Amino acid sequence: MQKLNYKSAGVNIDEGNALVTSLKEVVRATTRPGADTRLGGFGSIFDLKQLNYKDPLLVSGTDGVGTKLKIASELNNHTTIGQDLVAMCVNDILAQGAEPLFFLDYFATGKLEKSQAHSVIAGIADGCKKSNCALIGGETAEMPGMYQPGEYDLAGFCVGIVEREQLLPKKETIKKSDVIIGLASSGAHSNGYSLIRKLLEINTITLTDPAPFQSEYETIGELLLAPTHIYTQAVLPLCKQDLIKGIAHITGGGLLENIPRMLPEHLGVELNRGAWEVPTLFDWLRELGNIEQNEMDRTFNMGIGMAFIVDSNEAEAILRHFKTSEFEVYSIGKTFKASQGPRVIFS
Hints:
It is globular, with a radius of gyration of 21 Å. Helix 4 links the parallel strand 2 and strand 3. The protein has eleven helices and ten strands. The chain folds into two domains: 159 residues, CATH 3.30.1330.10; 176 residues, Phosphoribosyl-aminoimidazole Synthetase, Chain A, domain 2 (Alpha-Beta Complex). Helix 3 packs parallel to helix 4. By secondary structure, it is an alpha+beta fold.
């Protein structure tokens, strides 16, 4: 009788161990106060006593990057998808005013390819460094038969911390005529890619086709792989100075569904559509599918990756603060009393 082992069933333990060894320096580069970034234990450790918080709350978030993974796989370009994963998680907890502390990833594939997995996880480490978040653990799962050759799935989990009195949103402080400030996105971020891929399919457009408009990227695939912005280090100082009343991370549901999540029930937001530059990408997508504006607004971020509510007296100072950051910033609207009707309207 043939002698079987785990490798003959499609799982290569040695390849997994080699991956962990190759990642030790990459992971160590993400260390921060409180974090133990050594790999190999059954659990990961973070020491809260090393932080100078008085009355802290922990805030957690988990997410993936959806079918943007299909774009990365088709192009065999896995260098930035890890930043997308980190961004989706740390930007979510930032919406609660939280400073990210540590991150764990889950990478699952049918057959582990060390170079591919290393590229993905190195990208996760880059995202962690951008957000001052320690990559302290994760799971690499090799599951033969679950995925097509070369394909993988990706998920992440982040924990952050915030002083109780600085937890966002502060709905009791939000009032009529407060100002909405928006930070530019880098493109579609990690939302709407199922629709994007459908649009490419029905219009027989390939990822290697030249970008159809002026862009820093040469091909459509490169344009669609632009990594999600990580806003943490630009925004946290304002949170800690109590200058922000609410934050919305503009992900699935777009402006229409995410902005109301930071509002008290009696208020809505009027956005001035001409106040910010909508990337040409979204105009192109709308034309490809003859998509109605309302559908665009609840599917894509339309050029705004994160929105804030601030007091009108603080708005100019906050705009100046972001002028020194890497992100384009806009004053995009105001709050209004909304007893009935839509919570987000456009002028």
